[in-house]
Amino acid sequence: MANEVTISADKIKKREKRFKILKRVLLLLLLLLLFIYLFLSFVYNGGHFTITLDRSFALEQGLVLYDDLKYKEPQVKLSAGKIDFMDNISIKWIPSNIDDEADGIHNGDNYIAYTFYVENTGKDTINYWSELIINDVIKNVDDAIRVMIFENGEKTIYGKINALAGQPEKDCEPFFSDDSIFVRLREDIKPNEIDKYTIVIWLEGDDPDCLDDLLGGEIKLHMEIRSEHLEDKLYE
């Protein structure tokens, strides 16, 4: 009888020990999942397209950034938001007046459109650089992405080099690099002068690289406006 009691007590202790181990494992898994969620939330915070202005450059030179020409509220970061699902479309579906349609966010069906302004509120004529950086790509969706930029009404369209032909896409400037869509220099912006930008992003259905393999893909873009000299990078 005493042996049976001892065996039962040992079983209970072993069961409690296994239960404690299981609780610890579950707690660690929960913490891991929470960490992954917080990390992804941090990475994708602010949408899939943001614009930032170098803070020190803004203070030193008087360059300001805003997305409402009427109120001109200075910002150091602008967010164009995101579209939860972007199907492929043709450039023909994008309104011809997209550059003059609205200030700020004016996304449409399956495309991102954002208009903002850069103003020189300082006393000197200055230069600045702008770069559209690819922060993250999932499932090579950048193969068929198009980025159309209007700079003071002048339009340029960027597309990645065709993977099969190794040539630029029709009517497109090639991406600057694997990590940047473009790097542009704005020279001699005078005091009180304002530059207007409209950025449009879509998945081009007529691109030969726009295949079913891209389904479920994502891209995160970030445009920087800064004073850094990039001549070495441009002419490497």
Word description of this protein:
Strands 2, 4, 5, 7, 8, 9 and 11 form a 7-stranded mixed beta sheet that branches. A hairpin with a 2-residue loop joins strand 7 and strand 8. With 236 residues, the chain is an alpha+beta fold. It is built from 3 helices and 12 strands, in the order H-E-H-E-E-E-E-E-E-E-E-E-E-E-H. It has 2 domains: 1-43; 46-234, no CATH class. Mean pLDDT is 78; it is low at 37-47 and 229-236.
pLDDT under 50 segments (min length 5)?
Answer: 37-47, 229-236
Q: How much β-strand is present in the residues?
A: 25-35%
Quantity of strands, as a count: 12
Number of spatially distinct domains: 2
Residue share in helix: 10-25%
Number of helices, where a helix is a run of at least 4 consecutive DSSP H or I residues: 3
Distance between the termini: 86 Å
**Quick one: biggest sheet?**
7 strands, mixed
Which secondary-structure class do the elements indicate?
alpha+beta
State mean pLDDT (0 to 100 scale): 78
Shape: extended
CA radius of gyration? 26 Å
N-to-C order of helices and strands: HEHEEEEEEEEEEEH
What would you say about this model in short?
With 236 residues, this protein is α+β, with helices and mostly antiparallel strands.
Short key terms for the protein model shown above:
alpha+beta, single chain, 236 residues, 5-stranded mixed β-sheet, disordered C terminus, 7-stranded mixed β-sheet, 2 domains, 3 helices
Secondary-structure map:
Elements: H1 2-43, E1 49-53, H2 55-61, E2 63-66, E3 77-79, E4 104-105, E5 111-120, E6 126-138, E7 145-151, E8 154-159, E9 173-174, E10 180-189, E11 194-203, E12 218-226, H3 231-234
Parallel strand pairs: 1-12, 8-9
Antiparallel strand pairs: 1-3, 2-5, 4-5, 5-11, 6-10, 6-12, 7-8, 7-11
